[in-house]
Design brief:
With 172 residues, this protein is α+β, with helices and mostly antiparallel strands. It has 2 domains: 1-108, Arc Repressor Mutant, subunit A (Orthogonal Bundle), CATH 1.10.10; 109-172, Dna Ligase, domain 1 (2-Layer Sandwich). The chain is 50% helix and 15% strand. The protein is built from 6 helices and 6 strands; from the N terminus they run ααβααββββαβα. The strands form 2 sheets. It has a 3-stranded antiparallel beta sheet. It has a 3-stranded mixed beta sheet with strand order 5-4-6, with no helix packed on it. Helix 1 packs across helix 2 (40-51), helix 2 crosses helix 4 and helix 3 (59-68) crosses helix 4. The chain is globular. The termini are far apart. The structure holds zinc ion (ZN) (2 copies). Residues 56, 104, 111, 113, 124 line the site of one zinc ion. Keywords: Cytoplasm, DNA-binding, Metal-binding, Repressor, Transcription, Transcription regulation, Zinc.
Length: 172
């Protein structure tokens, strides 16, 4: 390419296009390494989770948020792609007992979840002792661990405060 710099329509736009395509190239490679053909919906959903790395989202929420950016993807496609990305271990899914299954980016860092039954808030935690105990149990059973689920349920501090104030009001 010998286009002189001053003849370029917009160097910034060009640089942006290069950045975007580099990002998609990486996503393509990640998908291929996971044994998945990099189709448009797969690239889109994976990039969405890469941009929201610490969020736990139900399929419906992913569907709504993808279509906010005027990308037309049916809920059925979202479900299908989510399942494929979980199979490829690029995403993880966590069932929260209340019938809710959420998806998150699988960044390879093990962690557990604590979930509020009232507001649905999700927090992540990592506890080295729990980790070591799980490892010890697996070894005891001569188990090669391929997955793990530990979810604590209850009421978060804010919901406990508001339910306490509701009780006080009722008592009056
Ligand atoms: Zn709560
Ligand atoms: Zn998580």
């Amino acid at each position: 390419m010998t286009t002189p710099l001053n003849a370029s329509p917009s160097l910034a736009a060009l640089r942006h296009a290069v950045l975007v395509s580099t990002k998609s190239m990486n996503t393509h490679r990640i998908l291929e390494r996971a044994g998945l053909r990099p189709t448009f919906p797969r690239v889109l959903v994976l990039e969405f989770f890469q941009a929201h790395a610490h969020e736990h989202l139900a399929a419906e929420a992913v569907y709504v948020r993808l279509n906010e950016d005027s990308r037309n993807m049916s809920l059925a496609t979202v479900y299908r792609v989510l399942a494929q990305l979980v199979d490829g271990r690029l995403l993880s899914n966590v069932a929260f007992g209340d019938g809710r299954t959420v998806y998150e980016l699988n960044d390879g860092n093990p962690h557990d979840h604590i979930v509020c039954n009232a507001c649905g808030g999700v927090h992540e935690f990592f506890d080295a002792e729990i980790e070591a105990r799980q490892q010890a149990v697996a070894e005891q059973f001569e188990f090669a661990v391929s997955g793990r689920r530990l979810v604590l349920f209850g009421l978060c501090v804010n919901c406990r405060k508001s339910s306490a104030s509701v009780r006080r009001t009722i008592r009056k």
